[in-house]
Amino acid sequence: MRLASYNMRGRPSFGAVVGEGIVDLRSRLSRFPTLVDVFRAQALDEAKSAIAGVRPDVPFGEVELLPPLLAPEKILCIGINYANRNADFDDPNVPKYPSMFYRHPGSFVGAGQPLVRPKVSEQLDYEGEIAMVIGREGRHVPKGLARDYILGYTLCNEGTVRDWLRHGKFNVTQGKNFDATGGLGPWIETEFDLAKPLHLTIRKNGQDTQDDTTASMIFSFADIIAYTTTFMTLKAGDVVCTGTPVKLGPKVDPPVWLKPGDTIEVECPEIGVLRNTVVDEA
Questions:
Q1: Cys-Cys crosslink for 213: which of 6, 72, 154, 197, Cβ 3.0 to 4.6 Å?
Q2: Against a cut of 0.85, is the pTM above it?
Q3: 184 phi, psi to nearest 5 deg
Q4: Alpha carbon 248 to chain centroid distance?
């Protein structure tokens, strides 16, 4: 089942992508204002029942997609999590623990919505990732049980303003949290098989610039959940962005940053395509 949040006929809603259309679930599950509320109530089976045998209410092209989860309690991001990423930081050592940071919901837009290059910097960059969506509350989750806590997956463009990453002495928070610099979507895929790696391809203006599989992750999905829940409770509807592969080809000096008109596509065959185009901040 593919679950999406969107604006439909001028109002926010959520539903399931069925064929070339969308079955609206907010009208059918009216006690839930958002998908986050559906997940917190453990009502995914109820959502499945509501779409069974139902024809789409609206063609897919007639809605404006939003980030799949509009108000998750947490959006966690894992840094430097693919093999050889350390070379980007002149560090040959494999990290012992994951690098982690937060993003706020307003730093992401939905599929098809514009990424905004901020007025204060020209160094907007992109990082294509797979993001886990947590399905139930967990603390001290054993690695062997971690997959039971994953409700589904979506795609992320973890947009970054590079010259703001070290504005403070230690933190990366500023450069990772400019409004509308990242993309999340297009939907949440709830049916998946983790027996084989997920293939992730990122394109800039139609050209492949990142290409790898989750087999190259230093910390697996299960590793991340087990580690994170040693110090915090993950809750239904939380989002965990799991890291970006290395960029293809030699390093370019000086780097080429995103500019208005550039389009970034993040694709995983098992999930879909997240596509966004860059605009300048008004």
A1: 197
A2: yes
A3: -140, 125
A4: 21
